[in-house]
From TrEMBL:
Residues 64-226 form the Integrase catalytic domain. This is Putative transposase. Involved in the transposition of the insertion sequence. One of its GO terms (molecular function) is DNA binding. InterPro entries: DDE_dom, Integrase_cat-core, IS_Transposase, RNaseH-like_sf, RNaseH_sf, Transpos_IS6.
Length: 227
């Protein structure tokens, strides 16, 4: 459960503001005005702090609450500009398009790919195969994960499939992220970028209905996940 100790606003108001920013194409100043129209006077800088503070917490809870995913994965990375520099958002979906995991990295190389695969395996289990593009770094990352699995006595071995055609699914899935950040003024720090992207991914998972809940409202489901 998210603790709002020290926060002078109702929990529902905080979660509503965070979800609204993550889900819809609004600026913090737009959101400040929207909240004021609903009787909540809050500065845009405070709204930014809420998003950065609470998004990663909700994202971690979402991973433990989402439904099990399929064992055939599609993995790719997309460029994100932070502090005027290109960084890389690693993402994976299963063959049905369900989001598996995501991770922002300052570099695109074998250690970064292996770190992402380790994170995805921890929250989704071991897949039978991972489809990637022609990236040598991603292939090397899978080989490293297989070596680690073998070292710990696991009989499982992840198959690597290199296919641009099959990987179109994850490339199309990047569009939600790109569409949301296109209208932002840009990320000023790695921490704020990573936190905000975590939250945007959760909003995307909610839209995909990856949770076992009778709730039809995106915000209510977001609030349920937050606890």
């Amino acid at each position: 459960m998210i603790s709002l100790k020290g926060c002078h606003f109702p929990k529902d108001a905080v979660l509503y503001a965070v979800y609204f920013y993550l889900r819809y194409t609004v600026s913090y100043r737009d959101l400040e005005e929207i909240m004021a129209e609903r009787g909540v006077r809050v500065d845009h800088a405070t709204l930014n702090r809420w998003v950065v503070k609470y998004s990663p917490i909700v994202a971690a809870r979402a991973q433990s609450k989402k439904r099990p995913t399929l064992s055939s994965w599609r993995m790719d990375e997309t460029n994100i500009r932070v502090r005027g520099k290109w960084m890389y958002l690693y993402r994976a979906v299963d063959k049905a398009g369900n989001t598996l995991d995501f991770m922002l990295s300052e570099r695109r190389n074998r250690p970064a790919a292996a770190r992402f695969f380790g994170k995805a395996l921890a929250s989704n289990g071991i897949p039978s195969k991972i489809v990637i593009d022609k990236s040598g770094a991603n292939a090397a990352g899978i080989r490293e994960v297989n070596r680690i699995l073998k070292r710990f006595g696991s009989l499982a071995k992840i198959q690597t499939v290199k296919s641009k055609y099959l990987n179109n699914l994850i490339e199309q899935d990047h569009r939600f992220i790109k569409r949301r950040i296109r209208h932002m003024c840009g990320f000023k720090s790695f921490r704020s970028a990573s936190a905000t992207l975590d939250g945007i991914e959760v909003a995307n998972i909610i839209q995909k209905r990856q949770f076992s809940s009778d709730t039809t409202s995106g915000f209510q489901l977001f609030a349920e996940i937050a606890g």
